[in-house]
Design a protein that fits this description.
The complex is a heterotrimer of chains A (about 350), B (about 280) and C (about 200). Chain A has about 350 residues and is mostly helical. Chain A has 17 helices and 4 strands. Chain A folds into 2 domains: about 60 residues, no CATH class; about 240 residues, no CATH class. The chains are: A mainly alpha (about 350), B mainly beta (about 280), C alpha+beta (about 200).
Chain lengths: ~350, ~280, ~200
């Protein structure tokens, strides 16, 4: 049979004029009528043999249209971005203004409930590095304003307030925070070396996301396969999805085990986004400070910090993840808060703290 | 290896690659004139091949033309959505008429001529319409089926008419070749679904094409099995022209039989025409 | 001491401004390329129904389901995707074996029904999604020339968790999982315009 267009098929009348979407163009929300898929089939000469009118049942049968559940709508995607912005703002408020560990902890639990278990952890700012890389390398890649916001907002917050994303919002960090039992010291020299790994991982992730490696598929097709390494090696995604391949669950369990004794191993020594945040946090406008002229050199903050971010009575802005544990245990802080009428606990052995020095 | 009473072998190929009559985009139908000239519909035109395989005449066919037939006097009838166009021997348009209601063009999948009657297979209504020489509809064939029409899951109806005026129609949904009188009275039906026996028709909708030979044999074309079968006047299976001659992806095998009994088969995927003769 | 703080502050402020500018620049470039929200979908022209959709989705019941495009369906009684046409026929001559291992392809008679002769009936075929595993056996059986090609595998967005990188995409031997703008039903239009995978 000859090639026939589908214009005379039923349902063509139902679909209106269709504007093709250009991925490299402006952000558009075209309405794709269902008929577009059927019209698209016309591009295949072989399938074109089948484009005829369906059987006419004499009016007793109405053709159902296949149902097509819609993906998450624009409203809900905007809600995700709004929740992220609010979370970052609250994180900055609780750490820098209220100096409250409890507030930060509650915020991080709310964040893990929303971004971790409800949204199942995808798409996250850590993974957005890959989407951004791919879009910069190849302008045809479809990237939504939501993912751009997910990439930029925590970085902007880091420039302004430090790593408030890590301490108050990031679900991966919260998992590690919640399992921390008895933080142990990591020798400084070792810590210095390990802190280079995130940049190595960042380079690898960027390479594989932007350029990829040529591979041969199991059917013999030679393609260049770009891989999202950060997604594939995310240790905690199995917890959020409550399922996953065995090796991923094993790695997740391993990180949790290590995380019981060494605070936030993924954040300090692996997270590529954390590497970016640490660079920006160094020059942030406001950040966690151990105010030198008011403290008594008791050193309890340094003991309380599970991440070894306080050296010589200074908070190392690159490492500090804005968890507010130091503020919680500072005797001066307790005095100040009680004076302001805010009930503050006396420093005892709290989760994350190392106990009295 | 099954042996059949007759054997057919290819004796010629037309419109092959590199030849003058090569079809580049489509091959939609074949027909044989009384002078054994092979007519083919494809690439948007009607082509008449001469005895050497070259193109004797060609003219533009209507848009989306799907089938053609040659009357005894040499006039060419071409079926297109909602229309039948009639051309003279030289390719000049001498007439035409509309099929189906205005605004709902009928899907014309086959057209055949018997004396004054023009038979049009309307695949959307799943019936055969009989028109007189002036284009006036005179009757329906197939409406006396149990369900009032043919069953066409593959949305195509192929017909042929023999010298006695019996109309043959392929009822693909029922896996039958049905015969009718011109006034619509059913005569007989043969064939059934089956995957094992060669005389049965395979798959969900077969035989997709048919043609009637001058000696009363019925030639059927099947998809999936990609074979052409010849049934005798008593409906016994006489020959199978195997799948090695046709592309396995064919959903039609356009068929015609010339006056000497040679089978002309058009492969719409490879876009070649093969002539099979008895060996 | 005040000299150091001023110099330090100057460096900090400069770096901060550079940081904002860099983020702003990246943001501007990306926003100029921003398009609709992207989702993954199966390209039916490339899909070979290899069964990997069933096994490689991160969900235990895959988000890929078979979908019947009714306007292309032949409504055949002898549907090659519903029944195994090579299986032994029952007493009415209808093959008794089923193609779907979960029996997720359901059918009902439409139009005028003939209870005596099934050959006279048209059937409407729908997929029972909670039972469908996305193995693609029915899709393979419906492909031309045997069928009309109305069945295809499709990622269903009420089940898909929209991973940033679809794990089926990595495994697919034909690179048939493509990224398309939402609502995600037109992979063939953006065929050749997407860059992922």
């Amino acid at each position: 049979m000859d090639d026939r267009s589908l214009a005379d098929a039923p349902g063509a009348e139902a679909g209106g004029p269709v504007a093709p979407s250009r991925c490299g163009g402006h952000a558009r929300r075209p309405l794709w009528p269902l008929i577009l898929l059927v019209v698209a089939f016309a591009s295949s000469a072989l399938l074109a043999q089948y484009q005829k009118k369906p059987p006419d049942f004499g009016g007793v049968h109405a053709f159902p249209t296949p149902t097509h559940p819609e993906p998450r709508g624009v409203v809900l995607l905007s809600l995700d971005v709004a929740m992220l912005a609010v979370g970052l703002g609250l994180g900055a408020y609780f750490v820098l203004k209220r100096r409250s560990r409890t507030g930060t902890l509650l915020l991080s639990i709310a964040a893990i409930a929303y971004f971790g278990f409800y949204r199942k952890g995808c798409t996250c700012p850590i993974g957005s590095i890959q989407n951004v890389t791919l879009s910069l390398v190849d302008p045809r890649y479809i990237i939504s304003p939501g993912i751009i916001a997910f990439f930029l907002l925590p970085l902007l917050a880091a420039l302004l307030f430090g790593r408030v994303f890590c301490g108050g919002v990031c679900p991966l960090g919260t998992v590690q925070d919640l399992v921390l039992l008895r933080p142990m010291n990591v020798p400084r020299k070792l810590d210095r070396v390990l802190r280079w790994i995130p940049f190595l991982y960042l380079a690898l992730a960027i390479f594989f996301a932007g350029w990829g490696l040529p591979t041969v598929t199991s059917s013999g097709k030679a393609i260049v396969l770009r891989r999202f390494l950060i997604c594939e090696w995310d240790p905690f995604i199995g917890i959020f999805r409550l399922s996953g391949p065995f090796h991923m669950l094993a790695i997740g369990a391993g990180f949790i085990l290590v995380g019981m004794f060494y605070g936030r191993p993924y954040c300090r020594w692996l997270c590529p986004y954390g590497g970016l945040l640490s660079i920006l946090s160094r020059v942030s406008w406001k950040n966690v400070t151990v105010t030198p002229d008011k403290e008594t050199y008791c050193g309890m903050c340094a003991d309380a910090c599970p991440y070894g971010a306080i050296h010589d009575y200074n908070a190392d802005r690159a490492t500090c993840v804005s968890c507010a544990r130091c503020y919680e245990c500072c005797p001066r802080e307790i005095v100040r808060l009680r004076r302001e009428g805010i009930p503050a606990k006396r420093y005892v052995s709290v989760p994350g703290g190392r106990g009295p020095a | 290896m099954e042996t059949y009473p007759r054997r057919y072998a290819p004796v010629a190929t037309l419109a092959g690659r590199g030849t003058a009559g090569e079809f580049r985009k489509s091959l939609s139908g074949v027909a044989v004139g009384a002078d054994r000239a092979i007519h083919a519909l494809g690439d948007g035109e009607v082509r008449v091949f001469d005895a050497n395989g070259g193109v004797a005449r060609a003219w533009k066919a209507p848009d989306q033309a799907a089938c053609l037939a040659v009357a005894a006097d040499g006039r060419v009838f071409v079926g297109a959505p909602g229309r039948v166009e009639i051309y003279g021997v030289a390719g000049n348009r001498v007439g035409g008429f509309a099929i189906g209601k205005a605004g709902q063009p009928a899907d014309v999948s086959a057209v055949k001529v018997f004396r004054d009657a023009i038979l049009v297979a309307d695949a959307s209504a799943r019936l055969v319409r009989r028109y007189d020489a002036n284009g006036v509809e005179r009757g329906l064939i197939g409406s006396q089926h149990k369900t009032g029409s043919f069953m066409l899951p593959n949305r195509s109806l192929d017909i042929d008419v023999d010298a006695a005026g019996t109309v043959y129609a392929s009822d693909t949904g029922r896996h039958q070749v049905t015969t009718w009188k011109l006034d619509g009275t059913p005569v007989a039906a043969f064939g059934k679904f089956g995957m094992a026996r060669p005389e049965d028709f395979v798959g969900c909708c077969n035989p997709v094409n048919l043609a009637v030979a001058p000696d009363g044999c019925v030639v059927t074309g099947e998809k999936v099995a990609a074979r052409v079968k010849v049934f005798g006047p008593d409906r016994a299976l006489l020959a199978v022209i195997g799948p090695e001659h046709f592309d396995p992806m064919c959903i039609h095998i356009h068929l015609a039989v010339d006056s000497s009994g040679r089978i002309v088969a058009g492969d719409p995927v490879r876009r070649t025409i093969t002539i099979f003769g008895r060996s | 001491m005040s000299d150091t703080t001023t110099r330090r502050k100057f460096i900090d402020t400069t770096c901060r401004v550079v940081g904002f500018a860099a983020l702003g620049g990246v943001g501007a470039v990306l926003t100029s390329r921003a398009s609709a929200h992207g989702v993954y979908q199966v390209d039916p022209l490339k899909c070979t129904s290899c069964d990997l959709c069933r096994t490689t989705c991160v969900l235990s019941l895959s988000a890929v389901k078979a979908v019947n495009e009714f306007s292309k369906c032949g409504y055949c009684m002898l549907c090659p995707a519903y029944m195994d046409v090579t299986s032994a026929p029952n007493e009415k001559g209808v093959p008794s074996g089923k193609v779907c291992p979960q029996d997720a392809l359901k059918r009902r008679v439409v139009g005028k029904e003939d209870p005596d002769d099934p050959n006279n009936n048209y059937y409407e075929y729908t997929v029972d999604e909670p039972a469908c595993t996305g193995c693609g056996k029915c899709v393979k059986a419906c492909k031309p020339p045997m069928g009309n090609g109305s069945l295809r595998l499709e990622i269903r967005y009420d089940r898909c968790v929209t991973c940033n990188e679809c794990s089926i995409l990595i495994a697919c031997p034909e690179a048939a999982i493509v990224r398309v703008p939402a609502p995600g039903l037109s992979p063939l239009v953006t065929h050749g315009e997407t860059a992922n995978g």
